[in-house]
Amino acid sequence: MKEKVLVTGGTGYIGSHTIIYLIETGYDVICVDNGINSDKSVLNVVEKITGVRVPYFHIDLCDLERTESIFKEHSEIHGIIHFAALKSVSDSVSNPIIYFRNNLVSLINILELSVKYNVGAFIFSSSCTVYGDVTHSPVDEDTPLKETASPYGRTKQIGEQIVSDVLKQSNTKSILLRYFNPAGAHPSGLLGESPINSPQNLVPVITETAIGRRQKMIVYGTDYPTRDGSCIRDYIHVCDLARAHTKALNYIFEGKQDKPGDIFNIGIGNGLSVLEIIRAFEKVSGLKLNYEKGERRPGDIMAIFSDYKKAKEQLDWFPEYNVDDIMNTAWIWEQNRSSQIL
Ligand code: NAD
Ligand code: WQD
User: Fold this and answer.
1) Is 152 a catalytic residue?
2) Residues in CB range of 316: below 8 A, 6 or more apart
3) Is the pTM of this model over 0.70?
4) Does the pLDDT of residue 1 top 90, yes or no?
5) Residue ranges of the domains in the chain?
6) Of the bound ligands, which one is closest to the alpha carbon of residue 193?
């Protein structure tokens, strides 16, 4: 029998890539999303790549009754991967109530239903943002969490605690995955990041600038005490990240988890500066990027990258793509996407 997995936020960037890996690993997938930052047409692409039509529910997870209708229709849901959330750091500073309501109410509802319907496994999308303004990298899962700079970050810190408190008393086993900076696109060139809200993350900003959708881009700060003055991050390919979810589910379903909840960092394990990322893009694309050195962005931390040893040892997960693969797939995707939009 195939285990059935409900993917929330499944038409979003990371969710859609993960659905492909789940199907390829043999899971039976259903998807829920309210379309606030994605379009259900993504599932046509998933079908093109996998040959599988994924059942889709257009539901806001903040609506408990409608969310429960999924569980009534699909009596046996073995696992849930909970991606659904709003994710813009700056937007969360301007609209904290919207972020707290959306990210926390949706989480509470899906957890309540996980317990009620005896779901075996729950994977939560957490973020490196929970580490706050760290002074040392690499960070491992035992690195103490500091205050995070945004309401968005707080929804992840609080979210981790809610998952742990609620599921401790239940039959549902949980894993919290702390993603570092996801980037890149599916190697088919058919799927990548295509949010409804304008992307603010570095890699899509670079590709949108290169394609001409933005006139130029700004490097936020070149006076940090780093090797070239720009900030350092851990960029992880979205397909490596997607694979980490299937590994996490396998780990629970194969009975390997011996304590109620586990936390894993999912990153590439080393840091690259903003200017190094731009150079990697210029190398793979053969283009000169139109960028300017600008002021620091408020709330940015100087440097953070992961120690993913725990994921390697326990989940047998490790990154397979490097920074050139990230920039190459992101650039192919941008060109394909733009030719469809224009
Ligand atoms: P995304 O915006 O592409 O996907 C999130 C999806 O959730 C969207 O399709 C959106 O429509 C849906 N959604 C939001 N609120 C909903 C609700 N109330 N009900 C139903 N659907 C809802 O974002 P993503 O980059 O794929 O991120 C997925 C998860 O990973 C999020 O929880 C995010 O916070 C987390 N995360 C993302 C990053 C990143 O940089 N992309 C890094 C760390 C963690
Ligand atoms: C990366 C670097 C910018 C855009 C965010 C969230 C984090 C997690 C991942 C969800 C920084 C610089 C960027 C630009 C630039 N998301 N930059 N010019 O801030 O590390 O992390 O996404 O959980 O919580 O905070 O990612 O891609 O925005 O920035 O110079 O136009 O690129 O200053 O140093 P960040 P990012």
Assistant:
1) yes
2) 247
3) yes
4) no
5) 4-185+236-267
6) 1
